[in-house]
Amino acid sequence: MIKQDSPWVSFIALLFATFVTIEAAAFQAPVLPSVTAHFGIPVNLAALILISYFIAVAVFAPMMGRLGDQYGRRRMVIIGLIVFGVSEFMAAWAPSFWFFLLARFLQGLGVACIFPAVFSYVNHLFVEERRGMALGVMMFIMTLGAATGGLLGGLLIDAFGWPSVYIVSGVLALLGLIPLMIWVPESKGEPAAGKFDIFGALLLFLTVAALLSLPTWAANFGRESWVTWTVVALGLVSLILLWYHSGRQAAPILDVVLLKDRRFAVPVAIYWIQMLMNSGIVYSLAFFINNRPGGSASQFGMVTLALFGCTMLASPIAGKLIDRFEPKLISILSLMGSFGAMLYFVSMDTEVPLTAVLIMAGFIGVMLAANSTALMKLALGAVPRNKSGSGAGLLSMLRDLGLPTGSSFALAIFGLSSALHTRRVVEETATRLGLNESLSSELLAVAGDKSADMSAELAAAMQATGSEIDTVLQSINVASLGGAITNVGYLMLAMLALALALTPWLAKRKDIQAVSGFGVGRPDPAR
Known about the structure:
By secondary structure, the protein is mainly alpha-helical. The chain has 20 helices and no strands.
C-alpha cells in the first residue's frame, strides 16, 4: 500500500466501490422486463428481484458494520467487492430464476459489506469541519450512479442483451479492488464487548423480509388472505422481539441504545422519511408522466435526469455550506423548500407543462442534496467511537429500507386512488349517457385495461349518444391520473410535516463535536 497524506486519495478510491454498486442498482429498472421475460415469470413476482437484494442489504448492513470495526473496514470493503463482483457474474449466467434470486441476494450482501465501512471512513479520514464536503462529494457520486445507470443499462441491453449489465458491473467491481488495495489504509474501531448476536440477526432477517415482501404477498394472495396477515403478524412480532432482545445484549445486532440517543435517532428518522418521500415521488411520477395524454417514457427520463442531476450538482456545494453553517438550519430550510415544492405537486393535473415538472423535480433534487448531506453529518457525528460500525450500519440499513418502502406506499396510494377515481368518473359518465348496469361495468373494465376490447353493444350505445369513444376514455384517464397524483402528494406532504415536526430535536454542531470522529492527524487508537 502506498502511503499518502491527503485523505481525498483514499476517499476517492472508496467512492469508486460506492459508484459501482449504486450504478448496478440503477441497472435493475431497465433490466427488469427482460429478466422477467427470459425466465417466464409473472410480472407480480418480478418484485422478488428487488426484494431479495434489499433484504440482504438491510439485514446485513448492521452486522458488517460491526465486523468492520473488529476485523478492519478496508478488509470488509474488499470482501464486499469480491462477493458483489462474483454474484454479478452468477446473475449474468443464471440457469434458473431461483439461482438468479440467489445471485441478487449475494449482491445485496456485498453492498452491505461496503456501505457501512465507507460511511465509517468519513469519520476516520476527515475532521469534523471537513466532513460535510466529503459527504457532499459522496452524495454526488451516489447520485451520478443513479442518474447514469438507467441510461447506460438501457444502451447495454439494447446492444448486447440483459446479461451484459451484470457482466459490466462484475468487471468494474473487481477492477475496483486495485485502487482500494493501493491507496486505502486499514482502519479498525473499538470491538464491541460480547458475542455476535445470532438470534438478533435472525429476528432482524424475519422482520425485514416480512415487511419488505408484504406488498408482493398481498398482490398475489389478496389483502384479506390468511397468508398476507400471517406475514404481517410475523413482521410485527419479530420487530417487537428484536427490540426487546437487543436491549439485553452486550453487542446487539440492532443497537437500541444508539437508537434511543436523539442526537443519532432524530437525523436518521428524518433521513429515512426523506428517502421514502424521494422514492415515492419518482415512482408515482413514472406512471403519471407515462400515462397522461402525450406522455412518454422519454419524458419521464428527462424528469429523473432533472431530479438526480440537480442532486448530483448541488451535493458538493451543500457539503461545503454545511461545513460553514449549522447543519440543523440547513435541514430545516431544505425541508421547508421541499414542502413548498410538494404544494405545487398536489396541484398538478395532466395538462401541467413538462417544463414545470422539470423545474419542480430539479428543485426537489437540490433540497434532497442539502438535507441528506446535513442529516448524514449529524447522524455520523453523533456516533461514539466504539460504535462507529454499528452506527454506520444502521444509517445504511434505514437508507436502503426507505427506498422500497417509499415506492410501495406511493404506488399503493396511486393505484388505489386511480381505481377509485376511475370508478367515480365511469359511474358519472354511464349515468349521463344512460348506460345500463351491464354496459357500465364493461366501460369500467375497458377504462381500467387499455388492451381490453370494447363490445359492439357498448360502442353502439355510446355512438348513439353522440359521444366519441376515445374522448370518453381519455377523460376518464385524465380524471384518474389527476386524482391519483394529488393523493400521493398529500401523502408526501404528511411525511414532510412529520419530518419538520422532528427538527426541534435535531442536535446542533456543538452537541456532536465531542462525541466522535477521527480526523487526519488524529490517529485511530485501534489502528
